[in-house]
Every structure is written in C-alpha cells, then in structure tokens.
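User: Could you walk me through two proteins back to back? I'd like the raw sequence and the structure tokens for each, with a short line separating them so I can tell where one ends and the next begins.

Assistant: Of course. Protein one, sequence then structure:
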Amino acid sequence: QVQLVESGGGLVQAGASLRLTCAFSGGSFSGYAMAWFRQAPGKEREFVASISVSGANTFYADSVKGRFTISRDNNNAAAYLQMNSLKPEDTAVYYCAGGFTVYDGGYSSPNWYRNWGQGTQVTVSS
C-alpha cells in the first residue's frame, strides 16, 4: 500500500525559505507522477506544483512560479518542494500527492491523484 509522508513545514518569516520532503513507500516510485497541493483555512485545496515520473516535466501554479521548485529523487523515493521568498499568503497545510501513470506528464487536478499524505503546516509571518 502506497504511503506518503510529508515533513519540513514550520513557522518562518516572510522572505525565508523552506524545503518540504515527501517520503514515498509501498510502491514503485518511478511510476508515479507527484504533486504538491495546499489548503489554507476556509479555502479549497489548490494546486501548487507537479512533476512527471522522469522529472523532466514540471508545472507550477502562477502564484508560486519563480519562487518554488519541485523535484524528485527516484533512487531515494522522495519528492521535494523548495520554497523561496515565502509570503504570508503561502500559509497553508501542504499536501503531497501521487498517482500512477505510464505517461511522462504532469497533472494539476487533485482528482487525478489517488495517494495523499497527511499534510504539513507552513506558516509565514509578516
């Protein structure tokens, strides 16, 4: 059974950086497209970034483009989200998601992903 475990969240000041890690187990990581979503209080879950199975294709929400970088390590079965120049509006619970695919594409709809982590809180103070 596939399990995803996020780590790396915390409380930081605006302008700081954080790196989130998603540890994958229970399946063949190299066959899973991965993504990060976030959900702020009172808001719907929103897409942040996705990465294809090979890592060659990445996609970002406009709100994080140029500040966040998604990556993956297929040898260590982990995905990462490097977050720079954090803003208070980035405050949310961040979720890692994975979905098995034979294609090397990225997917922004949460409905596409079958596997989810429990989330990690990121709080950015002004």
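----
Protein two, same layout:
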Amino acid sequence: QVQLVESGGGLVQAGDSLTLSCAVSGQTFGNYNMGWFRQATGKEPEFVAAISWKADTTKYADSVKGRFTISRDDAKSTVYLQMTSLKPEDTALYHCAADFLPRRRTLDSDLTALPFWGQGTQVTVSS
C-alpha cells in the first residue's frame, strides 16, 4: 500500500520561500509520476505541479508557474516542491500525490491520474 508523508509546511510572510517534502513508501518510487495538489478551506482541490517518473517532464498550474519548482530524488523516494515569492492566495493544505500506473507515457494533472494522496501539510502565507 502506497504511503505518502508530507512535511515542510508552516506560517510565512508574503514574498518568503518554503520547500515541501514528501516521502513515499509502498511502491517502486522511480516508476511513478508524482504531483502536488492543494486545497484551501472551503474550496475544491487544485492541481499545483507534477513531475514524470523519468523527471524529464514537469507541469505547473498557471498560478504557480515561475514561482514553484517540483523535483524528485529517487534514491530517497522523495518529491519536493520549492515555493518562492509566496502569496496569501497560496495558503492551503498541500497534498503530495502519486500515480497508480507505472511508467505512464503521459504526465497528467487530474486527480484520476494521481489518486494516492498524503495527509497534507499546511502552508499559511500572511500579507
């Protein structure tokens, strides 16, 4: 069974940076696409970023493009989300997500392609 454990969230000020980490177990990490979603209070989950299992392709939501960077370390079975120039609207519970299909040819951003989620780590950005 896949387990994902996020860490690194916190309370920061607008303009600050933060790096989230997600440790994955229960699957051969290097064979799966990974991603991040976020959910603000009272809102639907929102795609943030994804990275292919080969790490040769990344995808970002328009709202974070140029500010966030997703990366992975297969030796550590960990995926990261580096967040810079944080804004109050980035405030949300951030969930790491894993694909169920090994070596998928495409990198998708929808929930059906990245169905395994962790409990999340809270990011709060004050103005």
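The CA atoms of residues 34 and 98 lie 5 Å apart.

Let me know if you want the two compared in more detail.
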